[in-house]
Amino acid sequence: ETGVTQSPTHLIKTRGQQVTLRCSSQSGHNTVSWYQQALGQGPQFIFQYYREEENGRGNFPPRFSGLQFPNYSSELNVNALELDDSALYLCASSPGGQSGNTIYFGEGSWLTVV
Amino acid sequence: QKEVEQDPGPLSVPEGAIVSLNCTYSNSAFQYFMWYRQYSRKGPELLMYTYSSGNKEDGRFTAQVDKSSKYISLFIRDSQPSDSATYLCAMIRSGGSYIPTFGRGTSLIVHP
User: Fold this and answer.
1) Contacts of A98 in chain B (CB under 8 A)
2) Band of the pLDDT at A49, cuts 50, 70, 90?
């Protein structure tokens, strides 16, 4: 158990719809990152939040957006869903600072877009 | 060319074998190196991390980093069927915001 919890675990959406995925970080971790993992691929970095501010973004379009709350939990929002958005979405938390390399993942949210 | 290259396998070995999993990389700025294990339809689990070159051992697992060759390895001794999973390497640049770059993962199958 990493202490990182994600919801929902599975969901099916229709192309064009919007989705919100949620993440609770491990206690004491102020940095949260989101990743997209397509089948047979490694996780691809979407963005990172540190103390409620976006702290880095990968090569994803603006329809991927996020939030971090004062308790360091986080949301990933995806608008105008496309079929290629079907993937496992992973949230990861880390303590930040010099220990930022210890990154712990949740179990992920499986998104299927039909 | 991707920054981190990893053979997807699958790698199939008999129980008890020594397994060698490898990644190569192109960016010399990588300083932190990690191995994650991912069971089917689950999130990645951090196995080991090392800083810069050298070896690190934890039970049946040994991580090895050769920065001069831009090559990292994970060795698993006395492999068990429960080790069957996908193994992801990941690397972080120094001085950055600790955002890892992942390989695509190697699928390992340990058969009884």
Assistant:
1) none
2) very high
